[in-house]
Amino acid sequence: MRSPSSSTGSTSTGSSTAGGSAAAFGLSSEARNLHWLLTNLVEEVPGLLSVAVVSSDGLLLLSSDPARNNAPTVDNSSGPKGSSADLATIVSGLGSLCIGASKLMDAGPVKQTVVAMEEGSLFVMSISDGSLLGVHATPDCDMSVVAYHMALFVGRAGHVLTPELRSELRQSMESVR
């Protein structure tokens, strides 16, 4: 698969591409690339119900919810209340709790949190700037495959998630509301 940044540089007129959809047009190449990475994560990893990237201050930046950014096409009906906004809230709260526990225990930065439940799993992984990647998955997902692909996403996205890009992503999410 090619990322949108590896294309020939032509501008699309709104049709769906590997990098997202009409909602992603007008965004910078870095933002389109992050949309493409999220789409790729959702499409390649079996058992994902909902995915959200949350800023360090708890704001939703990217989502697998088609109603939010039209990038990934995943059925969120069995996700937390069917909403990536709900997942973002959960991820932000869990991330904050784990960071507090890490500080109290003097255990260093939190890298990953996994909550295994009877009817699903929740994964939260830190991104270099304090943002978080959260994934809600089915109970029968292969946890090691999910964690591996999350680590790939974080490795690819972490270095480009600048304050300017976070601001652009927040604005694009707010314009969908």
Low-pLDDT sequence parts: 1-22, 68-82
- Main beta sheet strand tally, sense and closure: 5 strands, antiparallel
What sequence of helices (H) and strands (E) makes up the elements?
HEEHHEEEHH
Query: What is the residue-mean pLDDT, rounded to a whole number?
Result: 80
| Fraction in beta strands | 15-25%
Q: Tell me the structural class.
A: alpha+beta
Number of DSSP strand runs = 5
User: What is the radius of gyration?
Assistant: 16 Å
Helix proportion of residues, in percent?
25-40%
Number of helices: 5
Distance between the termini: 31 Å
Inertia-based shape: globular
- Major β-sheet strand ordering: 2-1-5-4-3
Describe the structure.
This protein has 177 residues and is α+β, with helices and mostly antiparallel strands. It has five helices and five strands; from the N terminus they run αββααβββαα. It has a five-stranded antiparallel sheet, sandwiched between helices. Strand 4 (120-126) and strand 5 (132-137) form a beta hairpin. The longest helix has 21 residues, at 84-104. The relative contact order is 0.17. Mean pLDDT is 80; it is low at 1-22 and 68-82.
Short description:
Helix content is 40%, strand content 17%.
Write the SSE topology.
Layout: H1 29-44, E1 48-54, E2 60-63, H2 66-69, H3 84-104, E3 112-117, E4 120-126, E5 132-137, H4 143-157, H5 163-176
